[in-house]
Amino acid sequence: MSQSKILIDSNSYFRLAKSIHPLLNEVFGELEYCLYVLKELEKEYDRNPRLKTKFHWVNEDEYFQNRKKKVNISNKEKKEIERTIGFLEGYKNDNCLGTSPIDIKYLATAFILDIPVVTDDIDMLNLGKAFDIVTMTSMDLLKLMLESDHINIEKVRETVSYWKYIKDIPANYKKNYKKLFKENAP
After folding, report:
1. Ordered domains of the chain (ranges, CATH)
2. Residue 1 pLDDT level (bands cut at 50, 70, 90)
């Protein structure tokens, strides 16, 4: 069976990697899911003082090493991704969406590789939906990990409690939590 790759956007990576470690390059579930980030995550983190302060642990060696292995992209796929970026940027501009160039790169990569992308960015989710790109939220990913016996419900609760502690809660958090996990959010 071949691996089922999933891209994880920076906002979801920052929310999940501290609580679920190692987060990347760990195969789980019957479909052999495996999470990857793009190299652009490093650039986004390095140029954003707010991220560096709030998520100071990101460059600790264990997390840095876990991010080293990236998803393989052929030269042909790279060219297709660049073309797709143009279409996504056009739609973004026409619809006044607040997606960053890195967000668009994630979506274009997911589209060309035909793999899901995890994000909590509402505009990114909407842009993905407009192009039939499979997206999921951080909570959807937690649910997938729980159903795959990769984590347990205590780890889900711990992760969500961490989001509350650092004041970095996704939109509709309580409603989505209750819908997915059939209990009130911590």
Report:
1. 4-138 (3.40.50.1010)
2. low
